[in-house]
């Protein structure tokens, strides 16, 4: 039976030690390194013995989970990252998936859910928690259904300014900042947002990001 090598990146020592103990109880997994932040990970990760999976905290000093996940994706693209976080906000979810995370799960999950998430990421390549499923996967499946019905390409209903707004919506900028960048009023930006929600049958900014990634408007 193959054992998957795991690295833990978590700045709270007590929680990290608890995770080490928990993961070591999963027979297919072995913790090979534990660090407190991304900077320490970049210094201690051995290129000759790379892990299969990294459990990544988000809020860490020196080098947080977003920048660390981006670094892992650029430097060691074969390593899969599972975000383990206290945050379930749209912004946190968007940023981690754009950074390259393959899954996102809450720290207060049951041990069995963590095991399932790790299995999914290592064996299937991805995992979505209930939180992410509710906000992202429904949108993805919605467009899979549209394609299966051979309906029109949804990009064809968007004009150039709406596409420009959509690209900005996939960043960390607020709607007010997007308005300034596009030299438009906040009310006009709200109009673009509402028009996209209506045209694409979406309800949230996360849905817009998912649509943009799926249709190649932005990359993750």
TrEMBL record:
A single GO BP: phosphorelay signal transduction system
Q: Which residues form a coiled coil?
A: none
* Residues modified to 4-aspartylphosphate: 57
Entry keywords, A to Z: DNA-binding, Phosphoprotein, Transcription, Transcription regulation
UniProt domain HTH luxR-type: residue ranges: 151-216
Named from the GO MF annotations, one term is: DNA binding
Query: By its UniProt entry, which InterPro entries does this protein fall under?
Result: CheY-like_superfamily (IPR011006), NreC/VraR/RcsB-like_REC (IPR058245), Sig_transdc_resp-reg_C-effctor (IPR016032), Sig_transdc_resp-reg_receiver (IPR001789), Tscrpt_reg_LuxR_C (IPR000792), WalR-like (IPR039420)
Q: Which residues form the Response regulatory domain?
A: 5-122
The source's domain of life comes to Bacteria
The entry's protein name is Putative two-component response regulator
Report the source organism.
Flavihumibacter petaseus NBRC 106054
């Amino acid at each position: 039976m193959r054992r998957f090598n795991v690295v833990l990146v978590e700045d709270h020592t007590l929680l990290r030690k608890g995770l080490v103990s928990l993961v070591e109880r999963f027979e297919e997994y072995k913790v090979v390194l534990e660090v407190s932040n991304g900077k320490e990970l970049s210094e201690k990760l051995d290129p000759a013995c790379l892990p299969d999976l990294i459990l990544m905290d988000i809020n860490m000093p020196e080098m947080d989970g977003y920048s660390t996940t981006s670094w892992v994706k650029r430097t060691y693209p074969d390593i899969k990252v599972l975000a383990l976080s206290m945050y379930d906000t749209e912004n946190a979810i968007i940023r981690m998936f754009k950074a390259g995370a393959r899954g996102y799960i809450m720290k207060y999950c049951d041990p069995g859910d963590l095991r399932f998430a790790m299995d999914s990421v290592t064996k299937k390549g991805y995992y979505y928690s209930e939180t992410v499923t509710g906000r992202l996967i429904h949108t993805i499946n919605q467009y899979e259904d549209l394609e299966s019905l051979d309906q029109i390409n949804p990009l064809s209903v968007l004009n150039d300014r709406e596409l420009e707004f959509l690209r900005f919506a996939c960043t960390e900028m607020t709607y007010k900042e997007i308005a300034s960048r596009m030299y438009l009023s906040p009310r006009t930006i709200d109009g673009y947002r509402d028009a996209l929600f209506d045209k694409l049958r979406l309800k949230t900014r996360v849905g817009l990001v998912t649509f943009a990634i799926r249709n190649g408007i932005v990359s993750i």
